[in-house]
Design a protein that fits this description.
Strand content: 5-15%
Strand order of the largest sheet: 5-4-1-2-3-6
Shape: globular
Order of helices and strands: EEEHEHHHHEHHEHHH
Number of domains: 1
Pfam families: DUF429 (PF04250)
Protein name: DUF429 domain-containing protein
Organism: Virgisporangium ochraceum
Number of helices: 10
Largest sheet: 6 strands, mixed
InterPro entries: DUF429
């Protein structure tokens, strides 16, 4: 099995792609690239069995409806609802609230934070993948699944804060050590120095690991009343099993 992880940014700078090959009892990081353009991302995802993208794959339904109403001059605030409550419903997706309840971290708002620029790029990438015949479902079925590396790290008992940016390279190096200790079956190979020197490269590897969890049905999926929103807004797959479960040869969802 080949899984791909994409730490997506609005521009190639800050974008990383990792490829992980899975064999019996072992996972090998086959390639990690930083500074990746759209064509290379599409090519990598197109040959993957599962690809995890660290970026919102859609916008809140309520936000889209709000923009449509605003475009025609018919915005109304629900009666009896505090303004901050109403704005939160516009700003956060169903999956964001699910993640917040599960791990205590609220993802960036695709409607109100700068991550929206990255989501625009993701939307174009998904469209290109679909045009190439790749099955795309924002809810996680098909080749692509939305992931949140910080949440995956927290669930797997690893530090999930304080390792980003150049000033925190010692913490990133420590995090790499801790990942290797927790997953001795993971071979970073020649790409280990890059993972120690770039949080984007490291997050791309974590995204590829999370994609493996999703492929094995070892990640959260939307409940029946969340499916419709997930297919429009996107759905963050949270691992539901320890790291070691990723190499135990469980059946892959078809």
């Amino acid at each position: 099995m080949l899984t791909v992880g994409v730490d997506l940014a609005a521009e190639p700078d800050g974008t990383a792609v990792a490829r992980v090959d899975w064999t019996a009892g072992r996972a090998t990081v086959a390639r990690v690239d930083v500074g990746v353009g759209d064509a290379a991302i599409v090519d990598a995802v197109a040959i993957a069995d599962k690809a995890g993208i660290d970026c919102p794959l859609g916008w809140p339904v309520a936000f889209v409806e709000f923009l449509t109403a605003h475009h025609t001059g018919h915005v109304t605030v629900p009666a009896g609802v505090a303004g901050r409550v109403w704005r939160r419903r516009l700003a956060y997706r169903v999956t964001d609230e699910v993640v917040h309840r599960a791990v205590g971290r609220l993802p960036l708002s695709v409607a109100a934070d700068r991550i929206g620029h990255t989501a625009m790029r993701a939307a174009a990438l998904l469209s290109t993948l679909a045009a190439r015949g790749c099955p795309v479902d924002r809810g996680g079925d098909g080749v692509v699944v939305e992931v949140y590396p910080a949440a995956s790290l927290r669930i797997w008992g690893l530090p999930d804060r304080g390792y980003k940016r150049t000033a925190n390279l010692p913490r990133l190096a420590d995090l790499v050590d801790r990942l290797r200790a927790a997953a001795p079956w993971l071979d970073l190979g020649a790409h280990e120095p890059l993972c120690r020197g770039s949080d984007h490269a490291f997050d791309a590897v974590v995204a590829a690991l999370t994609a493996r969890a999703a492929a094995l049905d070892l990640a959260t999926r939307p409940a029946a009343d969340e499916v419709a929103a997930a297919r429009t807004e996107g759905w963050i797959a949270l691992p539901t099993a320890p790291l070691d479960a990723l190499i135990q040869g469980l059946p892959v969802r078809g």
